[in-house]
Design goal:
Number of helices of chain A: 6
Order of helices and strands of chain B: HEHEHEEH
Largest interface: A-B, 19 and 17 residues
Strand content of chain A: 25-35%
Largest sheet of chain B: 4 strands, mixed
Oligomer: heterodimer
Strand order of the largest sheet of chain B: 2-1-3-4
Structural class of chain A: alpha+beta
Strand content of chain B: 15-25%
Distance between the termini of chain B: 40 Å
Helix content of chain A: 25-40%
Shape of chain B: globular
Chain lengths: ~170, ~100
């Protein structure tokens, strides 16, 4: 973010899935550019490392920023990693985001936000009563779902440290 | 999409090795639900893939079954791929009706 002459909203510290822990498994509809189907995270990690990216709902500008940056960095072309997102948006919104932004990555749909709760990264939205979504958060998982790198936003908004993720990918 | 072609190359049951039947379906489509009801009645496991209402957005169904209509069913056990709910119900009952 640009330097602002006021304080950005800080999010309270809370316990989240951390480096060295086994990330919780879950099954949710996984959306690609053609269809969606129930997939579990462990099915994906069984095939290789996964970068799991929690992000604010599709349509909010942080979602656009994050996916534009991930698309431009195209880590999956350089590293042995599968990049997947997770937000509260429904599969139709995911399809639209994938199509409009030219995203090559699959997105989990979790409208009840329970996956974010499991990972310790939920964010109740002020002014949108009853709506909770994930904080921006990034977890790099190995084939056993062990967390190799974790980042959770502490401000609203805050964006991942992409260079730090890249360094973690180098270490894989 | 990079991972979609992996999925397609490996067949519809990729990652779901215990599920031989894949149904391409549209949310709330009565013809699709008719097929699901038959699968449930026959106690057959199946895996669902949901597509969009717009026919032009259903290339995956066209690649699999030759046309864009849903439901489309892929049965890896028999190698059968079919469209049209009446045909699918007839196929399922004829193939699995006696065994359950």
């Amino acid at each position: 973010m640009a330097n602002l002459d006021f304080d950005v909203v800080e999010l309270p510290e809370r316990e989240h899935v951390a480096t060295g822990e086994v990330a919780p498994d879950f099954t949710r509809p996984l959306v690609n550019d053609e269809f969606w189907e129930d997939r579990s995270l462990s099915e994906l990690t069984d095939e290789g490392p996964v970068l799991l990216v929690f992000y604010p709902m599709d349509g909010a500008f942080p979602a656009t920023y994050i996916w534009k940056e991930l698309r431009d960095r195209a880590w999956d072309e350089t590293y042995d990693v599968r990049i997947v997102g997770c937000s509260i948006s429904d599969p139709y919104a995911h399809r639209q985001l994938i199509e409009e932004r030219g995203i090559d990555y699959e997105l989990f749909s979790d409208p009840n936000n329970t996956v974010a709760v499991e990972y310790g990264v939920p964010h109740d939205l002020d002014g949108m009563t009853g709506v909770s979504e994930p904080r921006a958060a990034v977890f790099l998982l190995d084939e056993e779902r062990v967390v190799e790198y974790a980042w959770v936003s502490g401000e609203w908004p805050e964006f991942p440290d992409y260079d730090a993720i890249e360094a973690a990918l180098d270490e894989l | 999409m990079r991972h979609a072609n992996v999925l397609d190359a490996a067949g519809p049951s990729f990652g779901m090795s215990d599920t031989a039947i894949t149904v391409y379906r549209l949310q709330a489509c009565p013809f699709c639900e008719r097929v699901i009801r038959t699968l449930d009645q026959l106690e057959l496991d199946y895996h669902s893939r949901f597509v969009e209402p717009m026919h032009s957005d259903r290339n995956v169904v066209k690649r699999v079954s030759g046309k864009r209509s849903v439901p489309a069913l892929v049965d890896e056990r028999t190698g059968v791929t079919m469209s049209e709910s009446a045909n699918i119900v007839e196929y399922l009952e004829g193939t699995y009706g006696g065994e359950h």
